[in-house]
């Protein structure tokens, strides 16, 4: 909250970074050299993402679910002060700060936070209410848009219309990128949201998520955007209750409302670690690919989370958690219900060529330019990195891997 000021020359040691990170909002662009996890066997959820680093060509790296375990040579990575304690506690190696800026910390504008909460409240009250599906969806869209507007891509691909009226996309040159930046930030009076607010929101969410991961320690088995799965729940009940107590004390001092009531009268508090029903069976093939089995109202329930596959239809297609393995195809055919066909992920097929004719029922039908929409199949698979880490080659073979089973996965 304030003007960014250069502090590059002040960050000469690790403790210097820590000092600024504790007192100010801080952003650092740095080079890491020969980086590795301090304790690879006890670090259940490595933090640095491979997608966000720029590394030397032909230098080997080891990754788990897209997270860095070790990297030979150097790589460049940009991080916020919020993330520094996590990075420093997990990794060893050398670091050289190339560029760093700081400014005062503070809350987002009160009116912005209050307006965001109002839409969150509406979303919470409308969830699961018959006949209010559209209003619920739009309220959820409004909440998400607060963040989405902050992190809009400022530098976009260049679109060129060719003589044949096709559109060609290309990456902007340094000069074109700089012009887009200048146009976006000038005049500043038109800007009411800041990109750095958006990236801070997700960094704060990740830091809280990592705090929960550390609470359950070696019992941690999987973490998603806003959840963790772990063994031996009763062992961690006190620690998580204390986490929630501390969080509620903090959020109550932020100056806005922080809780809403569901249609069933349940109090929903923003940011608390809210326990779900215990899971009897859980399987994952990597990030955003997992299935679980649990009991609800005395009945066995199967739930899946696979990026691009609708939850309800996907679980029905899977049928049995034992089918959740590489090679399984999720797809709904023409005989599926209207709802399943409408909500299924689509593929767009562009036809920009010369018109042509097809002969149907004795008639010649001209096909011009247009877009065809088809339902897209999704095949479960496993990445090479994840296969190497787990020893799982990609097809179920009970003699090849150890299947670990334990009750009360939380």
General description of the model:
There is one protein chain. The protein is α+β, with helices and mostly antiparallel strands and 410 residues long. Helices cover 30% and strands 30% of the residues. It has 10 helices and 21 strands. The strands form 8 sheets. Strands 1, 2, 3, 4, 5 and 6 form a 6-stranded antiparallel beta sheet that branches. Helix 1 runs antiparallel to helix 2 and helix 3 packs antiparallel against helix 4. The chain is globular, with a radius of gyration of 25 Å. The two termini are 39 Å apart. The C terminus is likely disordered.
Helix % is 25-40%
Poorly predicted ranges: 400-410
Coarse shape? globular
Number of strands: 21
Largest sheet: 6 strands, antiparallel
Radius of gyration: 25 Å
Alpha-beta content class? alpha+beta
Name the beta content range. Answer: 25-35%
* SS element count, helices: 10
Average pLDDT across residues? Answer: 88
Alpha-carbon distance between the termini?
39 Å
């Amino acid at each position: 909250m304030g003007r960014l000021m250069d502090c590059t020359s002040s960050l000469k040691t690790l403790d210097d970074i820590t000092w600024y990170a504790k007192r100010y909002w801080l952003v650092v662009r740095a080079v890491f050299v020969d980086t590795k996890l301090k304790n690879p066997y006890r670090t259940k959820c490595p933090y640095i993402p491979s997608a966000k680093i720029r590394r030397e060509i032909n230098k080997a790296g080891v990754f788990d679910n897209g997270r860095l375990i070790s990297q030979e040579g150097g790589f460049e990575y940009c991080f916020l002060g919020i993330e520094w304690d996590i990075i420093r506690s997990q990794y060893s190696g050398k670091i050289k700060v190339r560029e760093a800026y700081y400014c005062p910390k503070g809350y987002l504008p009160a009116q912005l936070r209050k307006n965001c909460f109002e839409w969150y409240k509406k979303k919470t009250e409308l969830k699961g209410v018959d006949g209010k599906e559209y209003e619920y969806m739009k309220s959820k869209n409004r909440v998400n848009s607060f963040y989405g507007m902050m992190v809009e891509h400022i530098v976009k691909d260049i679109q060129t219309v060719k003589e044949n009226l096709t559109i060609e996309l290309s990456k902007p040159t340094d000069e074109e990128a700089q012009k887009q930046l200048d146009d976006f930030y000038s005049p500043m009076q038109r800007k009411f949201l800041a990109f750095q607010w958006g990236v801070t929101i997700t960094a704060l969410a990740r830091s809280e998520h990592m705090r929960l991961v550390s609470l359950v320690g070696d019992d941690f088995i999987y973490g998603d955007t806003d959840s963790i799965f772990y063994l031996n729940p009763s062992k961690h009940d006190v620690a998580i209750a204390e986490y929630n107590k501390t969080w509620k004390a903090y959020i109550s001092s932020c100056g806005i409302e922080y809780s809403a009531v569901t249609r069933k009268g349940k109090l929903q508090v923003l940011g608390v670690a809210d326990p779900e029903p215990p899971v009897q069976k859980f399987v994952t093939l990597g990030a955003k690919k997992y299935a679980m089995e649990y009991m609800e109202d005395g009945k066995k329930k199967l739930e899946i989370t696979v990026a691009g596959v609708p939850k309800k239809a996907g679980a029905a297609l899977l049928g049995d958690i034992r089918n959740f393995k590489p090679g399984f195809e999720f797809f709904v055919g023409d005989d599926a219900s209207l709802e399943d066909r409408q909500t299924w992920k689509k593929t767009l097929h562009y036809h920009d060529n010369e018109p042509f004719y097809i002969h149907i029922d004795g008639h010649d039908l001209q096909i011009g330019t247009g877009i065809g929409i088809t339902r897209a199949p999704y095949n479960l698979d496993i990445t090479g990195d994840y296969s190497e880490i787990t020893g799982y080659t990609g097809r179920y073979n009970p003699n090849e891997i150890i299947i670990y089973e334990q009750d009360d996965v939380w």
